[in-house]
Amino acid sequence: MQLVSxxxxxxxxxxxxxxxxxxxxxxxxxxxxxDGLDLTGCLVTLDAGFCQKGIAREIRARDADYLxxxxxxxxxxxxxxxAWFEARCLAGxxxxxxxxxxxxxxxxxxxxxxxxxxxxxxxxxxxxxxWPDVRAVLAVETIRGHRRGRFATTREVRHxxxxxxxxxxxxxxxxxxHWRVENGxxxxxxxxxxxxxxxxxxxRAARNLAGLRRIALHLAxxxxxxxxxLRRKRKQAAWDDTYMAxxxxxxxxx
Length: 254
Fold this sequence. Notes:
Layout: E1 3-8, E2 13-19, H1 30-35, E3 43-46, H2 53-61, E4 65-70, H3 75-90, E5 101-107, E6 110-119, E7 136-148, E8 150-162, H4 168-177, H5 180-191, H6 203-222, H7 230-239, H8 241-253
Parallel strand pairs: 3-4
Antiparallel strand pairs: 1-2, 4-8, 5-6, 6-7, 7-8
Helix pairs in contact: 7-8
């Protein structure tokens, strides 16, 4: 059974989950997932598989903004966006070369530079005005330098649609934080909880177990009193009922 989750990247908490109907794609679960959330004033980021006008409309109907990854599933618009940014911003000698945001950081043996370019001309790209309340298209260029034997660089450009305002710093941070869903949720559930190896197939049981894993993950992360790994905290809670009660009680009191 497939589940679609809503994850608060700043607080690292799973806000909700919805099961994908049998025989349907993940997009079919999005309306049910959104119905259980108060999204007022939020910025919702979604992968390219969810880049659909209907989903954008659902998000705007809940007084939230969307930031949707734009790829080949929106072939014409994606091709136009790539051509526009390449000619106006990314190519050498381009007239609008300066990015709206330019930041760099170092860590894990890498140097990373991120540049955010913004197109707010809704008539520049065909079909752009058909998107609900769209305000801009972004191109996020990521240049990574790393040493593997010798120093080398890689470059990647990704494109996004958004209904949010012109704060390029906020949008660039949201693009980066979106990957916390994979690193902070899916990978932890797979490696730490063995979710992908779970053999439970009955839909209700699988859904309930998935919810319990996310609750356990949240409780363990919320304990800042002891400096231990998530795995060790889980083991301690399994061995010591008093510690488990402390985790639950502390969450209730927050």
